[in-house]
Amino acid sequence: MLKFFFTFLMLMPLCGAADTIYRTTDANGNAVFTDTPPPDGRQSEQVDIPQINTTPAPQELFIPTPDNTAAKDQREAPAYSVSISAPPNETTIPIGPGNFSVSAIVSTELETSDSLQLFINDTPHGEPQRATTWELTNVFRGQHDLTVAVIDGSGTILAVSPAVRVFVLRPSIITRNRNKNKNRK
Known about the structure:
Elements: H1 2-11, E1 21-25, E2 31-34, E3 45-47, E4 82-86, E5 91-93, E6 100-106, E7 115-120, E8 123-129, E9 133-136, E10 142-151, E11 157-160, E12 164-168, H2 173-184
Parallel strand pairs: 5-12
Antiparallel strand pairs: 1-2, 1-3, 4-6, 6-9, 7-8, 7-10, 10-11, 10-12
């Protein structure tokens, strides 16, 4: 009997359209669940089904895309290709203060009005700059996605690097307390 009940619970999401569920017992004493009352008038009980918990799907990683429609100047804009050379993708930053460097490579020299913008988790980090390195300090623990974009003087994105994911490890209070307890022994 318990096996039938668990089977019923597992199949409940498949019958989400049913508003009312009825429980009856067949001639062999097995529990039968259906969305219609028994036609022969057998005794049945209505089953209250609790609301199913749901979680929304995770958001997609936002990577800025170049705006190819902006042609404010008649000059031919150079075709940029940009990538992050350090740290490598899926690097783990060891336990420490959360400091590390990011380096980018640009295929051609930047025009006078163009610059680079570092994005951490889709948020611009600092001001646009012409240098290809960034010194990051006190980055919070966890997973972070880094991208570098080439932007022109008006802020239009001309090229974007593929995302590089880093995992930052930071000391926690639990770790510090554990180390103190080891020293006391």
